[in-house]
Amino acid sequence: MQIALGLYARLLTPRNLRFARQVGAEAIVVHMTDYRPGGEARDSFDQDARGLDVSDQRGRLWSVDELRGIRELVESHGLRLAALENFCPAFWDDVIHDGPRRDEQLGGLRELVSRAGQAGICTIGYNFSLAGVWGHVDGAFARGSASTVAYLGPEGPAETPLPRGMVQNRVTDPARLNEPATPCSEAQFWARWQRFIDAVLPAAEAAGVTLAAHPDDPPVETLRGMPRLVRRPADFARRLDAAPSPRNKVLLCAGTLAEMPGADVVATAGELAARDGIAYAHIRNVRGAVPRYTEDFIDEGDIDVAALLDALGDAGFDGAMTPDHTPRPDCGDAWHAGMAHALGWLRGARAALRHNAAAAVAAR
Ligand SMILES: [Mn+2]
Asked: Which of 128, 132, 135, 151 has its CA nearest to residue 255?
């Protein structure tokens, strides 16, 4: 298992890569699309009247040179590029909404996967979701009153209908922000995902690129009036069964899995790893489950993360694991401190498991 740090493109600087190496990361997961406002330079976004962001990429696919340059930058710091995470919403809004440019965009995704392969990037994580990650609130909910996010269900923000001009919290068509998205059932939305995977998987197989599907966070039945696909533990395996291929895997988000009511995180992760279904993992901790949960530090919460790592290792998982988010401890640089804590904890846990495994072998 490799320990990885996730970096948005605007954070992909030599200084942050040195930070990653210094605190013990072995790999980097790069988010080309930034979901927060205020990005700089190459990854900046226009703000629309609602304070939401429009992707400045406007569907311009990332080039082979751009992708290769990112991989080489990461490798020049002694790190491996484990994955690209998330397509730009403008690459596939009509794939997700089933709009008129769907087939053209599916062709673009095939091209993008092929370019990733040419650039030596072997994994792409994605989130096939209409409403995306939405409805969380910030507050002092983590250990020691550290700032973190929570999902409060009916006590949280009122659910506004998803506009047709948005996907995954990004504006893809400013002219359609007042138009509600076309209603769609869960079965219809599964069929859209199936069309996507059937269209793109052959290109992924040819390019040697693994597609890794993230679950729906928060894992609720519907959000902003739209269905959610991977919201129960069994839904991860359903994705694998629907398109059997070594290039169709899941992105195991341990936090999202724990947010699913009744989930057995360790057992589900072990089963998915045993069938080699996990491309890479997001490791974080959570208290509670839908309809109400809070994110906490990696060593504080409902998941026994040491047992989770043990189960993943026992089942042969050898991919990257990255803290997708952490609480923000009180200090001058909460993002770096939160990540350094999570990465250090993961390294310590992994060292302890390796020690125990070696001791068990020696005792035989
Ligand atoms: Mn995640």
From this structure: 151
Q: How far is the CA of 358 from the centre of ligand 1 (A)?
A: 31
What is the percentage of the chain residues whose pLDDT exceeds 70? 93
Is the pLDDT score of 47 beyond 50? no
Cα–Cα distance measured from residue 218 to residue 338, given in angstroms and rounded to the nearest whole number:
22
CA 30 to ligand 1 centroid distance, Å: 13
Separation of CA 334 and ligand 1 centre (Å): 19
- Per residue in 158-179, pLDDT (tens digit) is 999 999 999 988 888 889 999 9
CA 14 to ligand 1 center in whole angstroms: 25
* Ligand 1 center from residue 69 Cα (angstroms): 26
How far does residue 359's CA lie from ligand 1's centre (Å)?
33
The tens digit of pLDDT for each residue in 302-325 reads 999 999 999 999 999 999 999 999
pLDDT of 39 strictly over 60 = no
Centre of ligand 1 to C-alpha 257, Å, is 9
C-alpha 324 to ligand 1 mean position (Å): 5
Distances (CA, A) of 165 to 77, 93, 157, 190, 261: 39, 9, 20, 21, 31
Higher pLDDT, 172 or 343: 343
Q: What is the rounded distance in angstroms from the CA atom of residue 24 to the CA atom of residue 3?
A: 8
Residue 301, by phi and psi: left (phi above 0), alpha (psi -120 to 50) or beta?
left
pTM of the model: 0.94
Give the tens place of pLDDT for each residue, 54-87: 455 566 899 999 999 999 999 999 999 999 999 9
Q: What is the mean pLDDT of the chain?
A: 92
C-alpha 133 – ligand 1 centre gap (Å) = 10
Task: Give the separation between CA 243 and CA 59, rounded to whole angstroms.
Answer: 26
